[in-house]
Specification:
It is a single chain. The chain is of the alpha/beta class. A seven-stranded parallel β-sheet has the order 7-14-15-16-17-18-19. A six-stranded mixed β-sheet has the order 8-9-10-11-13-12. Strands 2-6-20-21-22 form a five-stranded mixed β-sheet, with helices on one face. Helix 2 crosses helix 9, helix 12 (320-332) packs across helix 13 and helix 19 crosses helix 20 (470-484). Pfam families: Amidohydro_3.
C-alpha cells in the first residue's frame, strides 16, 4: 500500500524524547500521526512529494499535556468578570469592576467573577459587595475555587439566611457578631455554583449551551497559545460532555480532552456500561472524580497538624465511610478513580480506601490517581508506590503563591509539598497539573516553577528540596501526564506511531536560564499535524 504524502517539519533543534537513538533533525506527519523521523535529506528522499515546513531557528518539543485543569469551568468563567490580582490589583479595583458591571446589567440579574485572590488583592465581604451592587445578586469565586463571597441579594436568591444550617462538608462563614459575612466554603459553594442537578431551584444559573460552547472555544484558543495540546478536565458533568461534543462536531475542538466525571453522575456512566478509556484520541473518559478535602490556596485542606499561621480551616468534604464505598464501587467496576486530596490526612484516607478496594477485588494495572496529592511523607510515598498510584500535583503553585506557602504551612511542610522530586525518586508516576482557573495555565511557567521553586512575584524559594531538572520537568508535562491519562505510547514523544502534537518555541527550555523559562515565546502549536495556534 502506498503511503499518503506527509508533511515534513524541521527546526534548529527537536527535543523528541525519543527511545530510538539521537534526536532527529526532522519528522514527517500524516493522518494526525508521526510516521518517520530523521534528517531532512533522508525524509525528502523517502517522500519526494512532501511539503517541507522549516521553522528556522526554533526548538520543537512534544505538545504540553495538563493532566488536571477545568475547561468546562473556564468556559463559564470567561463569560464573566476576570477578578484576578493581575486584572484588578486591589479590593477597590475589584469593587470598581463589579460596580461597572452592575451599571450595565439589568437589576436582579446575576453578576459573577472568578480568580479573586484574597492573599494578594485583600479581604472581601458581603457588606462591601452590597455597597456597589445592592440590586444584583453577586458571586465572587476565590482563585482556588473552593470558596466564594456573595452579597445580600445573592443570599436571599439562594434561600440562605441567618438560621440556615451549614451543609455537610461546608460552611456559611460569619462575622464575629454571628451575622453571615457572605463567604460560602466548600460544599456551601459547590451545592449552588456546581450542583449535581443543574435544574434544581435556588442554584446560580449557568449560561446557555451556545454561550458555553463559545467559552470552550475561547478558552481552548488561549490554552493552545500557551502550548497546550492535551488537557484532562477534572470535573465533568453530562452537560459538559454534551458541550464538548458539540464543539467537536462543529470542527472547533483544538485540544485533546480527557474527562473525569463527578461521582454524583457515576450511575449514568455505569448504566451505559462505559469504562475508563472509552472514546477516542480527541474526547475520552479517564475515570471518576471524588473529593476528600479542600484547597491549598483556599486554606481548607485536611492536615494532620494545624496551619502554621492559623489562617486556615481544615474541611473534610466527603465522609470517610462514603468515600470508602464510592471508591470500592468504582474500582469493582474496573474504572479508575481520581480523588481530590491535598492534605496529608486526606491522602491517607484515599490510600485506606484504595487499599481496601484492591484487597477485596484485586485489579492489577488499574492505576488510581490522587489529584493534587500536595503534602506527602515517606509513608505516603511507600503506600502509593505499592498501590501503583499516580500523583497529579500542582506544577505552578510554587511560582504563583511564593512565600505565602511558608507562612501558611511552614517551611518544613512546604519541603514536602508538590513533591515532584520525591515522586520521581520513589518511582511514582507524577503528572503535571495547573488546576486552572485555580493556578496559572501556562506550561512554561509550570516548568519554571518545577525547576526553580521560586515565587514569580516575590522570588521566595519554597520547597527547594523538591526542585527537578528542566529535562525532568518536560517529561512531567509530556510523558508522565500522558501516562496519568492512559495515553502512554501515544503522546509525549516525537517518534513514529505517536500523535503529531508538538509546540514550536523560540528557545530551548532545557538549556535556557531557569528563571527565564516562562518568558520563552510560543511560536506555534500543532495538534494532529494541524496548526491550532501561530504567533
Amino acid at each position: 500500500m502506498l503511503e499518503s504524502t506527509p508533511t515534513i517539519y524541521r527546526a534548529r533543534q527537536i527535543i523528541a524524547q525519543t527511545t530510538r537513538g539521537p534526536e532527529p533533525d526532522a519528522f514527517a506527519v500524516t493522518a494526525e500521526q508521526i510516521v518517520a523521523t530523521g534528517t531532512v535529506a533522508e525524509l525528502a528522499d523517502r517522500y519526494p512529494a512532501a511539503e517541507i515546513v522549516d521553522f528556522g531557528d526554533t526548538v520543537i518539543v512534544p505538545g504540553f499535556h495538563d493532566a488536571h485543569a477545568h475547561l468546562a469551568m473556564t468556559a463559564e468563567d470567561v463569560l464573566h468578570l476576570d477578578l484576578s490580582h493581575q486584572a484588578v490589583a486591589t479590593v477597590d479595583g475589584l469593587l470598581a469592576a463589579i460596580a461597572r458591571e452592575a451599571a450595565q446589567t439589568p437589576a436582579g440579574q446575576w453578576i459573577r467573577g472568578s480568580r479573586y485572590d484574597d492573599q494578594k488583592t485583600g479581604a472581601l465581604s458581603r457588606d462591601a459587595l452590597d455597597k456597589v451592587a445592592p440590586d444584583h445578586p453577586v458571586l465572587v469565586t476565590q482563585v482556588a475555587a473552593h470558596w466564594g463571597v456573595v452579597n445580600s441579594a445573592a443570599l436571599a436568591r439562594l434561600g440562605i439566611d441567618e438560621s440556615t444550617a451549614d451543609p455537610e462538608g461546608g460552611s456559611y462563614d460569619r462575622f464575629p457578631d454571628g451575622r453571615l459575612n457572605g463567604r460560602l466554603v466548600e460544599r456551601a459553594l459547590m451545592n449552588v455554583a456546581l450542583p449535581a442537578d443543574a435544574n434544581v431551584g435556588s442554584n446560580i444559573p449557568a449560561s446557555s449551551p451556545l454561550d458555553l460552547q463559545r467559552g470552550v472555544v475561547r478558552a481552548s484558543q488561549a490554552w493552545n497559545a500557551a502550548g497546550l495540546t492535551s488537557v484532562c478536565d477534572a470535573l465533568v458533568r453530562p452537560d459538559d460532555i454534551a458541550m464538548f461534543s458539540a464543539v467537536r462536531s462543529a470542527g472547533e475542538l483544538t485540544l485533546r480532552l480527557g474527562m473525569l466525571v463527578t461521582i454524583e453522575h457515576y450511575d449514568k456512566v455505569a448504566a451505559l456500561g462505559l469504562a475508563s478509556g472509552f472514546g477516542d484520541d480527541w474526547l475520552r473518559l479517564i475515570g471518576i472524580k471524588m473529593f476528600v478535602d479542600g484547597a491549598i490556596g483556599g486554606r481548607t485542606c485536611l492536615l494532620s497538624e494545624p496551619f502554621r499561621d492559623g489562617s486556615g480551616t481544615p474541611v473534610q468534604t466527603t465522609p470517610t465511610n462514603k468515600l470508602m464505598a464510592d471508591v470500592a464501587r468504582v474500582h469493582d467496576a474496573g474504572m479508575r478513580v481520581g480523588v481530590h486530596a491535598n492534605g496529608d490526612a486526606a491522602i491517607r484516607i484515599v490510600l485506606d480506601a484504595v487499599e481496601a478496594a484492591q484487597k477485596a477485588t484485586p485489579r492489577p494495572g488499574l492505576r488510581h490517581r490522587i489529584e493534587h496529592c500536595s503534602l506527602i511523607d515517606d509513608e505516603i510515598l511507600a503506600r502509593m508506590k505499592a498501590l501503583e498510584m499516580i500523583a497529579v500535583p500542582f506544577a505552578g503553585y510554587a511560582a504563583y503563591h511564593g512565600g505565602a506557602l511558608n507562612a501558611w504551612y511552614g517551611e518544613d511542610r512546604v519541603d514536602r509539598m508538590f513533591a515532584h522530586r520525591s515522586f520521581l525518586d520513589a518511582g511514582v508516576t507524577v503528572a503535571a497539573s495547573s488546576d486552572y482557573p485555580c493556578g496559572p495555565i501556562e506550561p512554561l511557567l509550570g516548568l519554571q516553577s518545577l525547576v526553580t521553586r521560586a515565587g514569580a512575584d516575590d522570588g521566595v524559594v519554597v520547597g527547594e528540596k523538591q526542585r527537578i531538572s528542566a529535562a525532568e520537568a518536560l517529561r512531567v508535562f509530556t510523558l508522565e501526564s500522558a501516562e496519568a491519562c492512559g495515553d502512554a505510547g501515544r503522546k509525549g514523544r516525537i517518534e513514529p506511531g505517536y500523535l503529531a502534537d508538538f509546540v514550536v518555541l523560540d528557545d530551548n527550555p532545557l538549556t535556557a536560564d531557569p528563571a527565564g523559562i516562562s518568558s520563552i515565546g510560543v511560536r506555534a502549536t500543532y495538534v494532529g499535524g494541524r496548526a491550532v495556534y501561530t504567533a
